[in-house]
Write a sequence for this structure.
């Protein structure tokens, strides 16, 4: 066995070491390439998320501006509070068709009617 080890010349050892270094650098380069691709994908995902958040922010700013506007305040005063401007006449539209009677056991029964049954 000693004779086999002695047969390796210095040139062969240098070539073997060089081949090992080449394999190491190729494996390291492949690992770095895979990591680079992963980081590129993550970067594009984050950029898409940033775009979505910026669009959402713009919608929220527009909504805030609308909620602070006189137009919104007037709409709420008219629709929900029933207020009118001076000189206007308020009216309520009433349907001519009667509403259907609720069925027995429906959610519209009063709680005390359910309790008495």
């Amino acid at each position: 066995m000693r004779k086999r080890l002695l047969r390796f010349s210095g040139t062969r050892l240098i070539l073997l070491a060089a081949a090992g270094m080449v394999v190491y650098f190729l494996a390291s380069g492949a690992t770095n390439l895979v990591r680079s691709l992963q980081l590129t994908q993550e970067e594009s995902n984050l950029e898409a998320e940033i775009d979505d958040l910026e669009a959402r922010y713009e919608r929220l700013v527009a909504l805030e501006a609308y909620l602070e506007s006189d137009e919104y305040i007037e709409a709420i005063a008219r629709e929900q509070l029933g207020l009118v401007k001076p000189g206007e006449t308020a009216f309520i539209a009433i349907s001519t068709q009667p509403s259907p009677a609720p069925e027995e056991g429906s959610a519209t029964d009063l709680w005390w009617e359910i309790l008495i049954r």
